[in-house]
Structure formats: structure tokens, C-alpha cells
Amino acid sequence: MDAKTTSNEVQRRILDAVDEAFDRQLETTKQFSAIPSTRGAEGPCQDMMHDLLRERGYEVDDWHINVDDLKDLRGFGPIEHDFSRARSVVGTYRPAREAGRSLILQGHCDVVPAGPLDMWDTPPFSPVVKDGWLYGRGAGDMKSGTIAALYALDALRAAGLRPTARIHFQSVIEEESTGVGALSTVQRGYRADCCFIPEPTGGRLVRSQVGVIWFRLRVRGKPAHVYEAGIGANAIKAAYHLLQALEALEEDWNRRAASDRHFRVVKHPITLNPGIIKGGDWASSVPAWCDVDCRIAVLPGWSIADHQAEIVACVEAAASRHPFLAKNPPVVEWSGFLSEGYELTGADESEAVLRSACETVYGGPMKELAFTALTDTRFYGLNAGIPSLCFGANAEAMHGFNERVEIESLRKTTRAIALFVANWCGVETA
Ligand SMILES: [Zn+2]
């Protein structure tokens, strides 16, 4: 069988096999999504993935990540929490005869915290299907995508086929805070002719994505009883002052974004998000401290070091205009992502294969997306020169409450991945 194009009859068999197993796929997706795998607690998800890969006959590599191996690599972001149990899991398929193009399929199993439980209609880690959607934290971002990729490979086997190229199925952690899970697989030496990450993109190919910098403002004040507040200095109010200056920097960066060839059409692509605020000890004491954790985006091609320097300069200038901070300057700490943006280029061959799969499955041309969030594709693309595609189902309320993925879009994504693998790696009769 030709490695590059499978016949219509074979494609039909593959699509039927996806449909045949789809109920089981949904069941596995629910089990995977029921695991509360927030940062530092991904272990049970990695255990489940290890078992799923092993029972399918993949050669499984399951290792503890050593931060020291990673910290000098491009795109590394500082880790502040207990990392002693952090693992990566890779299942490898090796063909008897190498004829096609090799592939990395990657998913992240970490999820962001659920937030106030009373804001969810149903509990975040008890996934339920309702009106054609699967609800649950991580159901959209991106456990359904990872399981879709697993079942796409299953569909080839069920259709009596086996790929003729090496495939690494990679389950990683910490996509939501640093990306060190994906970085660890690159460091470990996993390489392929193309990488595919089924994040929920609404059936669109990510053409370009932002990078992200995380930083923490550590602001000090001077404590006093509020009855003599005049002699104190309020660290929480001082943090407002710094945030206002950073909002001006955000607008400045958005003006710069107007010259980016993909993001020029996106309204306000750079967002500064103060995401965590902590400070003070007592309602009737002038607060002596305030910490604010922030996230800001950068665009592809923007240097992380230069933009870190701009953040520091902005905070220093604002502090110099403040009566207390001028003499007690705040500190900027780097608290996670130090990630460049990534523009997909040099992927003509793999894009053509995905485009053709999409035309078959969706009955129309593949759409593209300039993404105002980041994905792990950057590590494969920037660190290893592997063209890295990001494409997946339709999800809503990611990082919000009542996160959900549209089930029919998940079926289509699974079909598209299965056809993509068949035509990228090539298949032969088993
Ligand atoms: Zn994600």
C-alpha cells in the first residue's frame, strides 16, 4: 500500500472503526477526566496512561523528570513547587518495516484548578454527558484530545492496518504552568518528522500562537494601626499603582502587535492578567506586604529576555514615582512560563496531509487560527526543529466553570487524526 495516500475504501474502514469504538472512547475520556490532575497531582493520570499504552502493546518509557537536566534548555521556566513526583510517559510503536514518516502525538494531562465548586452545575471531576457535550475540568483542555489520539491509533488496528513509521505517544505534565513536561521529552531525545498536539482548537489549525511570561510582584509596605494609617504605607494600594503602570505596558505591546502578520487581525492579542493576589494579615492593620502573580503574552519572534527587561523597567519607573516604593522598591520574580511564541512554518507536507484529512471529515477547507494562548508545540518547533501541528475539537469554558467539549466535534477530530496518521506514517495490511 502506498505510504502517502490510502484508498477511499481503506479510509472508509478507518472512519467506521472510529465510530465503532466511539462509545468506549467516551468512557475512557470520562475516566481520564475524573482524575483531579492539577499541578503536582498528575501521577494517577500518568499511571492510567501507562496502563492504556502497555495494554495496547506499546513500549512504555515512564521516568521521573530531573529539573537539573532541563534548566539550561530553551524555554525552561522556573519551578517553585515540589517536583519530586513529576513524570513523563511515552509509549512507542515501532513498525516491522520503516517506510513512512515518523510522528509524535502529544497530550498534557495536567488541568488548572476548578475554582469555587458552587459555580459548577455538576462537580468538575465527575464528568457527565448532557445535550451533546461532555462536562468536566479537563474534558476540553485537553484530556478528550489525548484519548482521541489514542483511539485514532486503535482505529487503524481495528481496520486491519498497521502504521509503517515510528510513533511516540507522549503524555506530559505542567503544560499549564511551564511546559517542562514537553521539554523533558525533547531532552530525553524523542524526535520525529512531525508532532501533532490535539488541543481543543475548534477544528482549526493553529498557525501562530503567543508566548507567555509569568511574574510575581512582591510589594512591601509599612505596617501600622489604621487609626494612624498616615504613618504606614499600604502594600495593597501600592500594588494597584504598579498594576496600572503594567496596564500601560500591555497597551504598548498591543500597539506593537499591530505589525504581526498573523495577530494584526486579532483584537487585543496581548493580555496582562493579574491572576493571584495575596497580601496583608489583618483588616485593621495597614498591610505590610502584597504579592501579585501575573501573566502577560508575547508574540512569535519577541525575545523573552528583552520583554522581561521591559517588565522590570516598567515596575522600577512606576516605583520611583511612588512615595513609599521609591525608597522600598518592589521585587519582580519569575514564577513559571518564560515561553516564546511559535509560528508554524516549514510544515507544508504535514499540513497538506492534515488538510486532506479535514476535507474528508469536515467536507470543507481547513480553517486556521492565530491563538492567544500557548501550547506545547513551541518546544518541538523551536528546540528540535520538528514542525508541530495543533488541531482538535470544539471546547468551551476552558479554565472556567462548566468546562465542556462537544462530542460530535470529538468524533470528527478522532476521525481526522486517524486519517492523518494513516496518510502521514503510511499503513500496511496487518
Ligand atoms: Zn491545553
What does this protein structure show overall?
The chain is an alpha+beta fold. It contains 11 helices and 19 strands. A 6-stranded mixed β-sheet has the order 1-2-7-3-8-16, sandwiched between helices. It has a 4-stranded antiparallel β-sheet with strand order 4-5-18-17. Strand 4 and strand 5 form a beta hairpin. The chain starts with 7 loop residues before the first helix and ends with a strand. The model has no long low-confidence stretch (mean pLDDT 96). Zinc ion is lined by residues 108, 141-142, 175, 199. The site of zinc ion has 5 residues, from helix 5.
Helices and strands, with pairings:
Blueprint: H1 8-20, H2 22-33, H3 43-55, E1 59-64, H4 67-70, E2 87-93, E3 103-108, E4 128-130, E5 133-135, H5 139-158, E6 161-163, E7 167-172, H6 180-188, E8 195-197, E9 204-209, E10 211-220, H7 235-257, E11 273-279, E12 289-298, H8 304-320, E13 331-339, E14 342-343, H9 348-362, E15 367-371, H10 377-384, E16 388-390, E17 395-396, E18 404-406, H11 407-425, E19 427-429
Parallel strand pairs: 3-7, 3-8, 8-16, 9-15
Antiparallel strand pairs: 1-2, 2-7, 4-5, 5-18, 6-19, 9-14, 10-12, 10-13, 11-12, 17-18
Helix pairs in contact: 1-5, 1-11, 2-5, 5-11, 7-8, 9-11
The total beta strand count reads: 19
User: How much is the radius of gyration in Å?
Assistant: 23 Å
Strands in their spatial order, largest beta sheet:
1-2-7-3-8-16
The DSSP helix count reads: 11
Query: What percent of residues are in strands?
Result: 15-25%
